[in-house]
Specification:
The chain has 353 residues and is an alpha/beta fold. The protein contains ten helices and twelve strands.
Length: 353
């Protein structure tokens, strides 16, 4: 390679990195702080990113409130309380970059916030005695109320839809987000929690949310996750459960694939807050959970068509999988026969619950 070619190559490489670094630098991330009134806790700091990292025009500068410009909101929450670490949750090129691409594709705002604690790590609600559970729930309600106040301020400040929030929480983020969804179900559309070490008690109204609960067979909270899943189904919840073999307290590519397939499914039903003409589809997001195309066995992550499933698994290990994309991400699909066009019988679905 001669000097001119080397110079051209190096100049092109520098230009490439310059353009990409400018793109990330230009990515607008906005902040809002909700002060706490509880001495034992810290303030909750929220961050917002609009699709493609675009800027936000302050509606306070206009004569009237700005219309909602995004279809919906996806929250990505973790265990972290460090501001810069939390901020990167919704940035391009970072650990949740595939979720950022997903949000850009579907015109979703991304939000995140510092983990505000207040939950019991490693102790699930169903094993607490009555007095301990009562004290814990009272304390957490106070913290959840502060989160709600901050979240509503955030939505008003940045013209975001308050309802139909989708959320992915991992580790402490899963601990926090599923408790919020159980405490404040009216705000949530879909919830994915991963590798929780403990689970809250099932409550009323959580059945109006679509749930994905993923864990690992080496995760401390795996047995509690099974109990949470079974209790949720008995209470009429719509929940997908997945336990990855030999996975401990960590993420995995398979978990992310399942998560993104789950949220992609949700997009068929999520109301478009930016479109006054939006109309819901003929069936809701729960229809294919009641009449699934595939059913999985969570003990070995094998999925079969609904017609074949009873031949290969006991009812207590069944998981409803609403479409083939989710089934293929969830585990190994053993598709001996093409899915039947007719609906599965009600008795089979009742055995899952």
């Amino acid at each position: 390679m001669n000097y001119i070619s080397k110079f051209t190559f190096i100049a092109g490489l520098l230009f490439f990195f310059l353009i990409h670094s400018r793109a990330f630098a230009a990515e607008e991330i906005y902040e809002l702080v909700e002060p706490t009134k509880l001495a034992r806790f810290s303030d909750i700091t929220y961050y917002v990113r609009f699709p493609q990292g675009r800027g936000f025009e302050d509606p306070g500068r206009a004569s009237s409130r700005k219309e909602v410009s995004v279809r919906g909101v996806l929250a990505l929450v973790t265990w972290s309380t460090e501001l810069e670490d939390v901020r990167t949750n919704i940035m391009s090129g970072k650990r949740f970059q595939n979720y950022v691409k997903f949000a850009d594709k579907h015109n979703l705002a991304l939000i995140t916030w510092t983990n505000f604690k207040g939950y019991k790590t490693g102790v699930s609600g169903d094993v607490m005695d009555e007095d301990r559970l009562k004290d814990y729930e009272k304390s957490y309600r106070e913290r959840a109320r502060e989160w709600k106040n901050g979240y509503r301020r955030l939505c008003r400040r940045f013209s975001l839809p308050e309802k139909n929030l989708m959320i992915y929480g991992i580790s402490g983020g899963g601990q926090m987000s599923h408790r919020l969804a159980l405490q404040e179900p009216d705000y949530f559309f879909a919830v994915h929690i991963h590798v929780n070490s403990s689970y809250d008690s099932i409550r009323r109204d959580g059945e109006q949310i679509l749930w994905l609960v993923t864990t690992g067979t080496r995760e401390y909270g795996y047995p509690a996750g099974i109990r949470f899943y079974r209790e949720a189904l008995s209470r009429g919840y719509h929940m997908i459960f997945r336990a990855e073999e030999n996975l401990g307290h960590a993420g995995s590519p398979a978990t992310e694939r399942t998560s993104l397939a789950f949220f992609e499914y949700c997009m068929n039903f999520l109301p478009d807050a930016s479109d006054p003409e939006w109309r819901p589809p003929p069936v809701d997001q729960f229809y294919l959970m009641k009449y699934p195309t595939y059913i999985g066995d969570y003990l070995n992550s094998e999925a079969f068509t609904t017609a074949e499933a009873p031949k290969y698994m006991a009812p207590e290990v069944m998981v409803a999988l609403p479409n083939k994309a989710i089934a293929e991400a969830w585990g190994t699909v053993l598709d001996f026969n093409q899915p039947e066009k007719s609906q599965p019988s009600a008795p089979l679905l009742n055995t899952i619950r």
